[in-house]
């Protein structure tokens, strides 16, 4: 497939420094976080737990720090909890805590209640290429204890490193792990504890997709966002639309039509292309400016009559759509609808800004009550 | 110094582990083992209170550590006897092995190890850090990397921790420890780097790893492959542990002899100064007498009785009932009489006790003297004739001695007559019924009210009447009150006598000192009287200091 693309508005775009400020040797950033425990501690956390060498740090580095998957081979083992706060560069307003697999945090010398109390999601990573019996034991121990401390946590299980497995093997592994883990929970009469399973690999987009779903569960405005997207695409003749967090390429919402992996990958690639090109050509002479800003927008026409459409929505979010060439003839309509959509999104998040930050699920109510006029059609949401 | 040095490692398989530990064992001696600090060998009492948390750490770690221990987290094999060095001067033995010898130290070291490698972050990752608490000891920790071509990230995490109970000591040793640990660490790192470079030259790991990922032959991953290599193989240093033992032992010994602890008692009180002055005076006097002739022996006696007088212990030898405390005296005399008597004592009036029982009188004087600074006390415990007020402010007399008329009519003296009850002559009746054995009658020509001040007496009376306070507490309270007022005396002395300020200014100072108010007159009298009790050292020091101070700004 040959891609012809035109990137509009390169004018004053990209600054790597702004969008991806972390370098991979994680020295200084830690100090910053430790120095200001108060604000960072108030954010809900996503915990990455699992046995040693299951791929926790790799996931965190690949998803949030753009590390190339091959480079993760050279990561050293994690010796302490690394608290990664990416809210300054990303919409994902959470702290990611990466745990060392070797240390047993249920030892009484650690305050594991403190760890779990402010946690939004616990991701347990299982190495699918390894014998996972031990991992299942640890999974059960971890989730049951965490559940006792804080039953509000979303428990997510990443069956990881599936890139080395055949498709049949993948399905079989997932079924087996699902079965055993739930049997263990049933034996401990913890049926209410719900585990979600994902097959993931850092070598394809599955890890981003899985992380997207984890994050979506923690976004209180999700139903509103989905609704807005639905209205937007149905009125604009668009096939599929994603609302992306640009830095992490996590999609925080999409319309209600089913997501197929290829279209998600296509959109991810488009973001990479746009950011990379604008990073090369979009900066000012002195290197200042940002790779992603208000003017960022791109249209890529593929030779199979598909058009990709990307436009800035907020500082961290971009809308990426897939549509047919014939729908794209009505570009004016799409642009106008996008304008309404963008306004509506801003209104949704303004509620979060004007009221205390949208931490936790309590911030849902207000944005839904707003009658958002989209495309001239007033509607009541949800 | 009671401390312990340990080398810790973050094992890729097992997490934080203690690799090598050097402890100092003191020779069994009572004073050494009673010294506070790191639990001393044989100090079994501490075992008890540590047990709870020690158990969990131990259960956790002994299960995993004996069961699964890889190359990387083992220094000396269990069969190895360890290393011992003996310091000939002090007899202290330095023992090194994988783990500390004593179980209660085990959990302390384990905790320090876990925290140094997995909790406490040094900004920049390699470097010194200090943490800890009273319960688990304080830790100086230096983390560092050792290159390893086979390790994840091509390096391994190590730390050297120094654990001690004495926070101040450890912090003061920081620059010293840092300097010397750095040397040890740098030598480890440089030898490891040589090994690393030669290994990389033979077999570049980076390329190997990149290739192996994409060749399915390597699957399944070897989770327990040769992930762990010992520090010996990383540095190719055959005598690694022996040399670490010697450098750790030296560190312990050197940091112990670097700083020694001295107990500082604070500045001497006025009472101590006065006592010292009197003692030196007596000694001078004595040497004069001895030089003169053999008649010195008689004086000897009086002097020793004088000093006993101050130390107030000699009296216990005398038979008969005694006054045991101020509170006791207050009960015996009654509240009103006690107040009056104490008032006279504090104002510097002559207090005369007349009675047949010298033991009782002396014990009463002992208690009354405690109201005054030592410098104000001049006492004649028991005399056959009247002594003038300038000679003594405490005078004990036998029952038939007449009091001169000018004294009995003076408002600056108070007379307590102790008369025996005829009915009860048995002296063996015990202390409790002094009241039944004796009658006390208090006489004074004083016309001033004694119930207003001084403030010191008011406060003391509150303390005395509060039965919840033990005699001990009351005496400490009195001590504090005396110190408080002695400080005021010093200020007033400096102000009025040394600087020679006027009346108005003095009045302001008195207000500042809190000496004004209802009992003002009494307070001022007290201050003036107590001024006579200041030590000569203090007075002369103040005089010279002030004069020196006056001179220097003008120069």
TrEMBL record, chain A:
SUPFAM superfamilies: P-loop containing nucleoside triphosphate hydrolases. Residues 26-35 have a biased composition (Acidic residues). One of its GO terms (molecular function) is GTP binding. Guanine nucleotide-binding protein that plays a crucial role in the cellular response to amino acid availability through regulation of the mTORC1 signaling cascade. Coiled coil: none annotated. Its main location: cytoplasm. It comes from Menidia menidia. It comes from the Eukaryota. It catalyses: GTP + H2O = GDP + phosphate + H(+). One of its GO terms (cellular component) is nucleoplasm. Residues 21-41 are annotated as: Disordered. It is found in: Cytoplasm; Lysosome; Lysosome membrane; Nucleus. Keywords: Cytoplasm, GTP-binding, Hydrolase, Lysosome, Membrane, Nucleotide-binding, Nucleus. Belongs to the GTR/RAG GTP-binding protein family. This is Ras-related GTP-binding protein. It holds the Pfam family Gtr1_RagA. One of its GO terms (biological process) is positive regulation of TORC1 signaling.
TrEMBL record, chain B:
Residues 74-535 form the UDENN FLCN/SMCR8-type domain. Residues 42-53 have a biased composition (Basic and acidic residues). Its main location: other. Pfam families: Folliculin, Folliculin_C. One of its GO terms (molecular function) is GTPase activator activity. It is found in: Cell projection, Cilium; Cytoplasm, Cytoskeleton, Microtubule organizing center, Centrosome; Cytoplasm, Cytoskeleton, Spindle; Cytoplasm, Cytosol. GO terms for cellular component: centrosome; cilium; cytosol; lysosomal membrane; nucleus; spindle. Keywords: Cell projection, Cytoplasm, Cytoskeleton, GTPase activation, Lysosome, Membrane, Nucleus. GO terms for biological process: negative regulation of transcription by RNA polymerase II; positive regulation of TORC1 signaling; positive regulation of transforming growth factor beta receptor signaling pathway. Residues 28-53 are annotated as: Disordered. InterPro entries: FLCN/SMCR8_DENN, FLCN_DENN_C_sf, Folliculin, Folliculin/SMCR8_longin, Folliculin_DENN. Belongs to the folliculin family. This is Folliculin. It comes from Menidia menidia.
């Amino acid at each position: 497939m040959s891609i012809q693309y035109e990137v509009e508005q390169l004018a004053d775009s990209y600054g790597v420094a702004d969008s991806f400020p972390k370098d991979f040797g994680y020295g200084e950033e830690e100090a910053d976080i430790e120095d200001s425990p108060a604000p960072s501690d108030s954010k809900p956390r996503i915990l990455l737990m699992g046995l040693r060498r299951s791929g926790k740090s790799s996931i965190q580095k690949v998803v949030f720090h753009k590390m190339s998957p091959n480079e993760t081979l050279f990561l050293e083992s994690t010796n302490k909890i690394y608290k990664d706060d990416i809210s300054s560069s990303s919409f994902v307003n959470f702290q990611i805590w990466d745990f060392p697999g070797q240390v047993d945090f249920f030892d009484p010398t650690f305050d594991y209640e403190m760890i779990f109390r402010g946690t939004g999601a616990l991701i347990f990573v299982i190495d699918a290429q390894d014998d996972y019996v031990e991992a299942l034991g640890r999974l059960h121990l971890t989730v049951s204890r965490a559940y006792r401390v804080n039953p509000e946590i979303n428990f997510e299980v990443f069956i990881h490193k599936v890139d080395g497995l055949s498709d049949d093997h993948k399905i079989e592994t997932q079924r087996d792990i699902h079965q055993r883990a739930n049997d263990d929970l049933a034996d401990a009469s913890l049926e209410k504890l719900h585990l979600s399973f994902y097959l993931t690999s850092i070598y394809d987009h599955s890890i981003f997709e899985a992380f997207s779903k984890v994050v979506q569960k923690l976004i209180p405005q999700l139903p509103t966002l989905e609704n807005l997207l639905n209205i937007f695409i149905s009125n604009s003749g668009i096939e599929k639309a994603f609302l992306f967090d640009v830095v992490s390429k996590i999609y925080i919402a999409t319309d209600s039509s089913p997501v197929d992996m290829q279209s998600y990958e296509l959109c991810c690639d488009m973001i990479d292309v746009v950011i990379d090109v604008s990073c090369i050509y979009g900066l000012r002479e002195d290197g200042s400016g940002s790779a992603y800003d208000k003017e960022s927008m791109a249209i890529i026409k593929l030779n199979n009559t598909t058009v990709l459409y990307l436009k800035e929505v907020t500082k961290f979010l971009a809308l990426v759509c897939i549509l047919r060439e014939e729908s794209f003839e009505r570009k004016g309509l799409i642009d106008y609808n996008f304008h309404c959509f963008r306004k509506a999104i801003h209104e949704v998040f303004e509620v979060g800004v004007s009221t205390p930050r949208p931490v936790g699920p309590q911030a849902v109510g207000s944005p839904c009550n707003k009658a958002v006029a989209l495309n001239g059609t007033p509607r009541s949401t949800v | 110094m009671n401390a312990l040095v340990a080398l810790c490692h973050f094992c890729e398989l097992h997490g934080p582990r203690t690799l090598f530990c050097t402890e100092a064992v003191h020779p069994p001696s009572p004073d050494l083992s009673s010294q506070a600090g790191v639990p001393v060998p044989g100090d079994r009492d501490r075992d008890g209170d540590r047990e709870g948390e020690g158990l969990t750490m131990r259960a956790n770690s002994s299960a995993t550590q004996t069961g699964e221990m890889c190359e990387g987290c083992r220094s000396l094999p269990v069969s190895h006897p360890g290393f011992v060095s003996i310091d000939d001067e002090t007899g202290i033995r330095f023992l090194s092995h994988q783990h500390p010898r004593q179980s209660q130290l085990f959990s302390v070291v384990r905790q320090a190890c876990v925290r140094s490698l997995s909790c406490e972050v040094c900004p920049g990752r390699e470097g010194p850090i200090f943490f800890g608490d009273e319960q688990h000891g304080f830790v100086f920790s230096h983390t560092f990397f050792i290159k390893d071509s086979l390790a994840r990230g091509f390096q391994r995490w190590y730390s050297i921790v120094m654990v001690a109970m004495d926070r101040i000591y450890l912090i003061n040793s920081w620059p010293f420890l840092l300097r010397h640990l750095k040397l040890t660490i740098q030598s480890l790192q440089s030898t490891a780097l040589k090994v690393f470079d030669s290994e990389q030259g033979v077999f570049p790991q980076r390329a190997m790893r990149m290739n192996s990922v994409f060749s399915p032959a390597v699957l399944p991953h070897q989770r327990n492959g040769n992930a762990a290599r010992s520090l010996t193989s990383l540095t190719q240093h055959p005598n690694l542990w022996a040399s670490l033992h010697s450098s750790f032992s030296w560190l312990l010994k050197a940091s112990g002899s670097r700083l020694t602890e001295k107990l500082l008692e604070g500045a001497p009180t006025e009472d101590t100064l006065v006592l010292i002055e009197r003692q030196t005076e007596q000694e001078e006097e004595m040497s004069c007498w001895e030089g003169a002739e053999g008649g010195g022996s008689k004086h000897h006696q009086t002097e020793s009785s004088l000093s006993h007088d101050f130390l107030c212990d000699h009296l216990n030898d005398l038979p008969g009932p005694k006054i045991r405390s101020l509170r006791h005296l207050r009960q015996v005399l009654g509240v009103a009489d006690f107040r009056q008597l104490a008032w006279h004592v504090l104002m510097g009036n002559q207090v005369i006790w007349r009675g047949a029982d010298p033991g009782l009188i002396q014990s009463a004087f002992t208690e009354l003297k405690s109201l005054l600074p030592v410098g104000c006390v001049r006492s004649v415990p028991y005399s056959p004739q009247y002594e003038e007020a300038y000679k003594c402010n405490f005078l004990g007399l036998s029952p038939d001695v007449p009091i001169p008329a000018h004294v009995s009519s003076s408002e600056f003296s108070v007379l307590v007559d102790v008369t025996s009850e005829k009915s009860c002559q048995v002296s063996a009746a015990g202390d409790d019924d002094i009241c039944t054995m004796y009658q006390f009658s208090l006489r004074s020509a004083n016309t001033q009210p004694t119930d207003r001040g001084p403030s010191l007496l008011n406060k003391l009376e509150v303390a005395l009447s509060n039965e919840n306070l033990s005699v001990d507490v009351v005496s400490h309270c009195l001590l504090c009150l005396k110190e408080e007022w002695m400080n005021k005396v010093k200020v007033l002395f400096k102000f009025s006598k040394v600087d020679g300020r006027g009346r108005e200014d003095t009045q302001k100072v008195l207000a500042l000192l809190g000496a004004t108010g209802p009992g003002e007159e009494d307070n001022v009298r007290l201050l003036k009287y107590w001024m006579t009790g200041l030590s000569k050292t203090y007075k002369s020091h103040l005089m010279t200091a002030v004069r020196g101070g006056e001179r220097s700004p003008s120069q």
